[in-house]
Amino acid sequence: MPEDAPLLRLTGVSRTYARREVLHRIDLDLSAGECVALLGHNGSGKSTLLRIAAGRDTPTTGTVTFDGLPMDENDPRVRARVAVVGDTAACYPDLTVREHLQLVAVAHGVDEAEDWIDHVLADRLLSEHARSLPAALSSGQLQSLLLATALVRPRDLLLLDEPEQRLDPDARRRLAELIAAETEGGVGVLLVTHHAELARSVADRVLVLRDGALIADGTPDEVLTGGADGVTWLGGDAEGGR
User: Fold this and answer.
1) Residue 3 belongs to a domain
2) Rounded to whole angstroms, what are the CA distances from 191 to 84, 127, 228, 234?
3) Is 1 among the domain residues?
4) 77 C-beta neighbours (distance < 10 Å), count
5) Each residue of 13-69: pLDDT tens digit?
6) In a domain, 208, yes or no
7) CATH number, domain with residue 196
8) Are 217 and 211 in contact (CB under 8 A)?
9) How far apart (Å, rounded) are the C-alpha atoms in residues 100 and 238?
10) For the ABC transporter domain, which residue ranges apply (predicted)?
């Protein structure tokens, strides 16, 4: 891949379900070491776009490439280099917190896995819960576990679906620090979020979706203060012309 080519590229991506178009010709480039935040109200198409970016869904029209090649969740290259943090349904009810991380580390051939697992547990404030099952965790601790499963494995691209959900303000601060550390280390991050201040603090670019269409794409200062196409992000909704 040429040095200046994007790590992730979506070109003309649309998605139709039962004749309802939920995404309308989306173009998105994400480079290594860059964080792009995607905002929009519920039903705007954010999670659909993330699933397509991860290779977990197929666009009706358009293309998705990772490192210059077609994105496919079943491609071993993608599995080795793309980490996705979704919802808590991904947890196994009969595995402890540590066993979740051991499973991921072994699957990705992590060297000195136990030492690294200890580090990740401490980083996500889960050390005291290492032997706990998911049912014994709070909602915020479950979210921290999902983040930990991404941190314990190698990755070049990190896809986050509303990772701030169920986190208290201190945990959101630590989430912002985590994302900053990822991009500083060269990882590309696509962040789907409802939290404008999180996007402002970590994103290089902010995109806003409304009814499946991209209505803003710019720096956080441009998009979150109304400078990009007259769009302002207002507490979970995007409004134009203000």
Assistant:
1) no
2) 10, 26, 19, 18
3) no
4) 11
5) 999 998 889 999 999 999 999 999 999 988 899 999 999 999 999 999 999 999 999
6) yes
7) 3.40.50.300
8) no
9) 37
10) 8-236
